[in-house]
């Protein structure tokens, strides 16, 4: 993002349409909100969440295999099974906070559960 904000934003939008949205739909994920370059997704099933994360990371790896290192976009994914508070279309609580912390310690291109 630091080297080319506009280019990175465009690439993220393309990845969202080409990879993320189809995988989230396939695995019954619901986008709760986007936060800058992050996305919060809710799943009714832990199995769906894990399968979706793995599919996304595999697709991302395949898409970026031929790109130079400075052009690769790698996601970090954190998954937590925990209680949440539902408020309209939004979710809050320790379950969300722990998932965000797991995402931050996940290796690039990885999944932390």
Strand order within the widest sheet?
Answer: 1-2
Total domain modules: 1
From the alpha carbons, calculate the radius of gyration and give it in angstroms.
14 Å
Tell me the span between the first and last alpha carbons: 26 Å
Estimated share of beta-strand residues? 15-25%
What keyword list fits this structure?
globular, 20% strand, 113 residues, alpha+beta, two-stranded parallel sheet, Alpha-Beta Plaits, two-stranded antiparallel ribbon, 47% helix
Account of the 3D structure:
With 113 residues, this protein is of the alpha+beta class. The chain has a single domain, classed as Nucleotide cyclase, GGDEF domain (Alpha-Beta Plaits, 2-Layer Sandwich). It has three helices and six strands; from the N terminus they run αββαβββαβ. The chain has a two-stranded antiparallel ribbon. α1 packs across α2 (46-64). The model has no long low-confidence stretch (mean pLDDT 92).
Short description:
The chain is of the alpha+beta class and 113 residues long. It is 47% helix and 20% strand. The mean pLDDT is 92.
Secondary-structure topology with pairs:
Layout: H1 5-26, E1 29-35, E2 38-43, H2 46-64, E3 77-78, E4 85-87, E5 90-92, H3 94-105, E6 111-112
Parallel strand pairs: 3-6
Antiparallel strand pairs: 1-2, 4-5
Helix pairs in contact: 1-2
């Amino acid at each position: 993002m630091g080297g080319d904000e506009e280019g990175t934003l465009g690439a993220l939008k393309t990845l969202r349409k080409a990879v993320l949205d189809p995988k989230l739909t396939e695995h019954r994920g619901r986008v709760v909100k986007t936060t800058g370059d992050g996305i919060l997704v809710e799943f009714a099933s832990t199995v769906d969440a894990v399968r979706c994360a793995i599919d996304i990371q595999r697709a991302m790896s395949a898409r970026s295999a031929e790109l130079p290192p400075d052009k690769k976009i790698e996601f970090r994914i954190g998954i937590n099974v925990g209680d949440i508070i539902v408020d309209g279309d939004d979710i809050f609580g320790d379950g969300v906070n722990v998932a965000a912390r797991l995402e931050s310690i996940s290796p690039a291109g990885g999944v932390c559960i």
